[in-house]
Fold:
Amino acid sequence: MFIRHRVAGLLVLLLGSLGFRLHSSEENFEFQKLADGVYAAIRTEPVGLGVDANNLFVIDDDGIVVVDTNFGPSSTRAVLAALRKITDKPVKYVVNTHPHDDHVLGNAVYREAFPNAEFIGHAFLKDYLPGKGATNRRNQIDNLPGVASTLRETLAKNMNLAGQPITDEERAGYMSDLRMIESYLEDAPSFVDVLPTTAVTDRLTLERGSRTVEILHLGRGHTAGDLVVHLPQEGIVATGDLVVVPIPLVGGDQSYVAEWSSTLEKVIALKPRIIVPGHGPLMRDTAHLRLMAELFASVTSQVKSAADAGQLEQVRKSVNLDEFRQKFAGDSQLKKFLFANYVTGPAVMSAFRAARQPPPR
Structure:
């Protein structure tokens, strides 16, 4: 899971939750049939700091295409066990939409169960996972016990992380975060990266019987290595974290806010009837994608106008996202906190970085 959480004034990279035992797998996700032979595993944890990935499964006559794995072996094994109740066909392909732990750490489970499976990801994954990804993961493992302690303290005091009286929504989210952190740390000694056996830079098409599966790099957004999986006959698109509900996940040093809107427009141009986001419920229209595109276009425009006038902190103060915070978070205290930590801070940083880059020669 890709989390940024403010503790003692610092942004700490997170990945899970801690504190209590995981619920049974049936309570953490549910399988939804999208079309004949097409299913999605949609996470059902409450909104919180931590997230685990949704999954898409495309079943044909002789095998399965899996889109994204989960944030660790335990979570992935639970999803695979549920898939086994639907079909006993072998997994032929595993597609990773981007390189963050909550979408790739379950790869080893599929490699163990299906030694002949092919793993497909953007070429960016091959460099990122053993390099910066490994460093980020070590930092996450080191930081998570402290984050867990902070969450326990806030719960014991009936306060939220901003020092305000805690709401029921926040309490449920923090408890879920603690459960995920515990699972992640228990799994950590067994983490193994499985790199792509097939690397995509533009597009790859799989012809699976009568079904076409398009694996597309439409541009940068959440990361430099974002892929979407498109089933054109069924009108289904799995977006990875290019699309997240309810609050977009932005990394100041890893995301490309200035390009994200354009990438989302290309997803919209596919005219999907069903969208499987990286996190959050299924969508049957593109309204949320359009709202995200408007948000990132606004951030980019505001930052570009102010970038020449000052440094990052000065620019940050000049950017006004109140209208978008209301649209994404409403009156939810928790979602407003998530918007501040996952959007306002890192999105401005990402757009500022782009605005300060010298023009290409």
